[in-house]
Automatic annotation (TrEMBL):
Residues 9-109 form the Cyclic nucleotide-binding domain. The lineage of its organism: Bacteria, Pseudomonadati, Planctomycetota, Planctomycetia, Kolteriales. It holds the Pfam family cNMP_binding. It comes from Kolteria novifilia. One of its GO terms (molecular function) is acyltransferase activity. Its EC number is 2.3.1.-. This is Acetyltransferase Pat.
C-alpha cells in the first residue's frame, strides 16, 4: 500500500484513506497481449497497476505506435474518469499483469456522497490534467517554432541563394 503514495493520483492521501480507496477496487488479471483499455472505448474506470508491465499504444496515421511502457506503481485510464471522453490510447499487458480496477460508477457514487477520498482523487486528477495540458502546449509551441525556423530558412535560401 505504501507504493500508492508514489502515484500522483493518490498524493496527499493518508494511509487510512488509501486503505479505504483500495477497498473500492476489483482485482483483474491479464495475460500478455490482453487489453486493459481500448482506444476509442468508453471510460468505465481506471486501473492501478499492481504487478506486471503494460504498453500504451496510440493510433497515429492509421498505425499503432507505442508511446509508453508502464509498471507499478502506475495508473492508466484515470483522465476518462473525469472527462468521460473516449479512451485516447490502448493499454495492453506485456507480461502477466495484475491491476486494481476502480469502476467509474463506484467513483461517481463516492463523489455524490462527498467522500473526502474521492474528492481528493478528483482534485489530483484535475491537477494532473492541467499539468499534461501545459506540457502539451509547451511541446506544441516548440514544434511550431522549430517548423517556422525551417520555413524561414527555406525562404531565405530560395530568395538569397549562396
Amino acid at each position: 500500500m505504501s507504493e500508492f503514495h508514489e502515484v500522483p493520483v493518490f498524493e496527499n492521501l493518508s494511509r487510512d484513506q488509501i486503505a479505504e480507496m483500495t477497498s473500492w477496487l476489483t482485482r483483474q488479471r491479464y495475460k500478455p497481449g490482453e487489453t486493459l483499455i481500448v482506444e476509442g472505448g468508453a471510460p468505465d474506470g481506471f486501473h492501478i497497476l499492481l504487478e506486471g508491465r503494460v504498453e500504451v499504444l496510440q493510433t497515429i496515421m492509421e498505425s499503432g505506435r507505442r508511446v509508453a511502457v508502464l509498471e507499478p506503481p502506475a495508473v492508466v485510464g484515470e483522465i476518462g474518469l473525469i472527462t468521460h471522453h473516449p479512451r485516447s490510447a490502448t493499454v495492453m499487458a506485456i507480461e502477466e499483469t495484475l491491476s486494481g480496477f476502480l469502476a467509474r460508477e463506484t467513483y461517481e457514487r463516492k463523489i455524490a456522497e462527498d467522500n473526502i477520498v474521492a474528492l481528493r482523487i478528483g482534485y489530483n486528477l484535475g491537477r494532473i490534467g492541467c499539468d499534461r495540458y501545459s506540457q502539451a502546449v509547451r511541446e506544441m509551441r516548440e514544434f511550431v517554432e522549430g517548423e517556422m525556423r525551417k520555413v524561414k530558412y527555406a525562404i531565405a535560401r530560395a530568395y538569397w541563394p549562396g
